[in-house]
Amino acid sequence: MNAISSYLGSDHTRCDDFFIQAETNVSNGAWEQAEVSLAQFTEALERHFTMEEKVMFPEFEQATGSSAGPTAVMRMEHQQLRSIVALMRDALAARDAESYLGHSETLNTMMQQHNMKEESILYLMADRVLSGRQEEIISAMTSIDAPA
């Protein structure tokens, strides 16, 4: 049986790989490749957020009877992360490596903290409270397309 924690945890790694590639491209002044890499990262991140916000979080909230707990905090953090990604896109469009790298450093720190909370707390809780429904939930998350 697949675990929600494993599925979403490995998706964090997939997003991280795109993030690192974009940051490397900006550092090297490879602007066109950086645009591609940042677009891939943004798409992967939005798909990840969508899987959580449209599938896992609602299922978790229904099972626990609460939408005011950890999922509310994660949704708020998703919005903060989206705001920083927007600043990175602006810096990339301006070909401002210093600004981009400053924002990416902030994003990286926030993502690490966010992912740690999800992986060490929320996802493990989801594995427990959604036990027996994990395959169904993972299947629903897998079918999510990246937002346009």
Key phrases:
5 helices; mainly alpha; Four Helix Bundle (Hemerythrin (Met), subunit A); 148 residues
Describe the structure.
The chain is mainly α and about 150 residues long. The chain has one domain (about 5-140): Up-down Bundle (Four Helix Bundle (Hemerythrin (Met), subunit A)), CATH 1.20.120. It is built from five helices and no strands. The chain has helices at about 5-25, 30-65, 70-95, 95-130, 135-140. Helix 2 (about 30-65) packs antiparallel against helix 5 and helix 3 (about 70-95) runs antiparallel to helix 4 (about 95-130). This is Hemerythrin-like domain-containing protein. Pfam families: Hemerythrin (PF01814).
Q: Judging from the principal axes of the Cα atoms, what is the shape?
A: elongated
Unreliable stretches (pLDDT < 50, length at least 5) are none
The tally of strands reads: 0
Q: How much of the residues is beta strand, in percent?
A: under 5%
- The number of domains is 1
Q: What class, by secondary structure content?
A: mainly alpha
Rounded mean pLDDT score: 94
The major pleated sheet works out as:
none
Order of helices and strands: HHHHH
Domain Hemerythrin-like: 7-124
GO cellular component, one term: plasma membrane
Organism: Noviherbaspirillum autotrophicum
Protein name: Hemerythrin-like domain-containing protein
